[in-house]
Specification:
This protein is mainly alpha-helical. It has helices spanning 2-30, 36-58, 66-77, 80-92, 96-125.
Length: 126
Protein backbone atom coordinates (compact mmCIF):
# COMPACT_ATOMS: atom_id res chain seq x y z
CA UNK A 1 0.00 0.00 0.00
CA UNK A 2 2.76 2.48 0.88
CA UNK A 3 4.48 1.79 -2.46
CA UNK A 4 1.25 2.63 -4.31
CA UNK A 5 0.85 5.88 -2.37
CA UNK A 6 4.45 6.82 -3.17
CA UNK A 7 3.86 6.09 -6.86
CA UNK A 8 0.81 8.35 -6.89
CA UNK A 9 2.71 11.11 -5.05
CA UNK A 10 5.70 10.96 -7.39
CA UNK A 11 3.48 10.86 -10.47
CA UNK A 12 1.37 13.71 -9.13
CA UNK A 13 4.47 15.86 -8.67
CA UNK A 14 5.60 15.17 -12.22
CA UNK A 15 2.11 15.90 -13.59
CA UNK A 16 1.82 19.12 -11.60
CA UNK A 17 5.18 20.38 -12.86
CA UNK A 18 4.16 19.55 -16.45
CA UNK A 19 0.89 21.43 -15.88
CA UNK A 20 2.74 24.47 -14.53
CA UNK A 21 5.15 24.50 -17.48
CA UNK A 22 2.20 24.25 -19.87
CA UNK A 23 0.60 27.30 -18.21
CA UNK A 24 3.82 29.30 -18.39
CA UNK A 25 4.33 28.34 -22.03
CA UNK A 26 0.76 29.18 -23.02
CA UNK A 27 0.92 32.54 -21.26
CA UNK A 28 4.11 33.40 -23.14
CA UNK A 29 2.74 32.18 -26.47
CA UNK A 30 -0.79 33.57 -26.48
CA UNK A 31 -1.06 35.75 -23.37
CA UNK A 32 -3.95 36.05 -20.92
CA UNK A 33 -7.61 36.40 -21.75
CA UNK A 34 -8.57 32.82 -22.55
CA UNK A 35 -7.59 29.71 -20.59
CA UNK A 36 -5.73 28.01 -23.47
CA UNK A 37 -3.40 26.09 -21.16
CA UNK A 38 -6.26 24.51 -19.22
CA UNK A 39 -8.05 23.58 -22.42
CA UNK A 40 -4.88 22.06 -23.88
CA UNK A 41 -4.07 20.15 -20.70
CA UNK A 42 -7.58 18.72 -20.41
CA UNK A 43 -7.68 17.62 -24.06
CA UNK A 44 -4.14 16.21 -24.01
CA UNK A 45 -4.78 14.56 -20.65
CA UNK A 46 -7.92 12.92 -22.01
CA UNK A 47 -6.04 11.70 -25.07
CA UNK A 48 -3.24 10.27 -22.92
CA UNK A 49 -5.79 8.66 -20.59
CA UNK A 50 -7.37 6.86 -23.54
CA UNK A 51 -4.00 5.71 -24.80
CA UNK A 52 -2.79 4.54 -21.38
CA UNK A 53 -5.98 2.68 -20.48
CA UNK A 54 -5.70 0.56 -23.60
CA UNK A 55 -1.92 0.08 -23.49
CA UNK A 56 -1.88 -0.86 -19.79
CA UNK A 57 -4.75 -3.29 -20.30
CA UNK A 58 -2.75 -5.07 -23.02
CA UNK A 59 0.53 -5.24 -21.11
CA UNK A 60 1.26 -8.09 -18.76
CA UNK A 61 1.27 -6.47 -15.35
CA UNK A 62 0.41 -3.13 -16.95
CA UNK A 63 -2.06 -2.23 -14.26
CA UNK A 64 0.84 -2.00 -11.80
CA UNK A 65 1.84 1.23 -13.55
CA UNK A 66 -1.67 2.72 -13.31
CA UNK A 67 -1.25 4.39 -9.90
CA UNK A 68 1.86 6.22 -11.10
CA UNK A 69 0.74 7.06 -14.65
CA UNK A 70 -3.04 7.39 -14.51
CA UNK A 71 -3.76 8.56 -10.97
CA UNK A 72 -0.44 10.32 -10.37
CA UNK A 73 0.90 11.86 -13.57
CA UNK A 74 -2.41 12.45 -15.34
CA UNK A 75 -4.18 13.37 -12.09
CA UNK A 76 -1.53 16.00 -11.41
CA UNK A 77 -1.48 17.15 -15.03
CA UNK A 78 -5.17 17.53 -15.81
CA UNK A 79 -6.99 20.36 -14.24
CA UNK A 80 -10.71 19.99 -13.91
CA UNK A 81 -10.82 22.26 -10.89
CA UNK A 82 -8.85 24.88 -12.80
CA UNK A 83 -11.21 24.38 -15.74
CA UNK A 84 -14.17 25.11 -13.47
CA UNK A 85 -12.53 28.24 -12.09
CA UNK A 86 -11.61 29.48 -15.57
CA UNK A 87 -15.17 28.97 -16.83
CA UNK A 88 -16.65 30.77 -13.83
CA UNK A 89 -14.14 33.62 -14.15
CA UNK A 90 -15.10 34.16 -17.80
CA UNK A 91 -18.77 34.10 -16.78
CA UNK A 92 -18.25 36.58 -13.94
CA UNK A 93 -16.39 38.92 -16.30
CA UNK A 94 -19.57 39.11 -18.34
CA UNK A 95 -18.17 36.90 -21.09
CA UNK A 96 -21.00 34.37 -20.99
CA UNK A 97 -20.68 33.34 -24.61
CA UNK A 98 -16.97 32.78 -24.28
CA UNK A 99 -17.52 30.83 -21.04
CA UNK A 100 -20.09 28.56 -22.67
CA UNK A 101 -17.86 28.10 -25.72
CA UNK A 102 -14.96 27.18 -23.46
CA UNK A 103 -17.03 24.64 -21.53
CA UNK A 104 -18.40 23.12 -24.74
CA UNK A 105 -14.96 22.99 -26.40
CA UNK A 106 -13.36 21.48 -23.31
CA UNK A 107 -15.94 18.74 -22.92
CA UNK A 108 -16.35 17.91 -26.61
CA UNK A 109 -12.64 18.02 -27.49
CA UNK A 110 -11.70 16.00 -24.40
CA UNK A 111 -14.28 13.33 -25.22
CA UNK A 112 -13.12 13.27 -28.83
CA UNK A 113 -9.49 13.01 -27.71
CA UNK A 114 -10.09 10.04 -25.41
CA UNK A 115 -12.24 8.27 -28.01
CA UNK A 116 -9.63 8.84 -30.74
CA UNK A 117 -6.81 7.62 -28.54
CA UNK A 118 -8.68 4.48 -27.56
CA UNK A 119 -9.73 3.76 -31.15
CA UNK A 120 -6.24 4.19 -32.56
CA UNK A 121 -4.53 2.35 -29.71
CA UNK A 122 -6.97 -0.56 -29.86
CA UNK A 123 -6.32 -0.83 -33.61
CA UNK A 124 -2.60 -1.15 -32.88
CA UNK A 125 -3.28 -4.08 -30.55
CA UNK A 126 -5.57 -5.93 -32.98
Amino acid sequence: MIWTVLQVALGGGIGAVARHLTSVGAMRLVGPGFPWATLAVNVLGSFLMGLLVVVLAHQTGGTRAAPFLVTGVLGGFTTFSAFSLDALTLWERGQGGLALGYVAASVLLSLAAIAAAMLVTRAVYQ
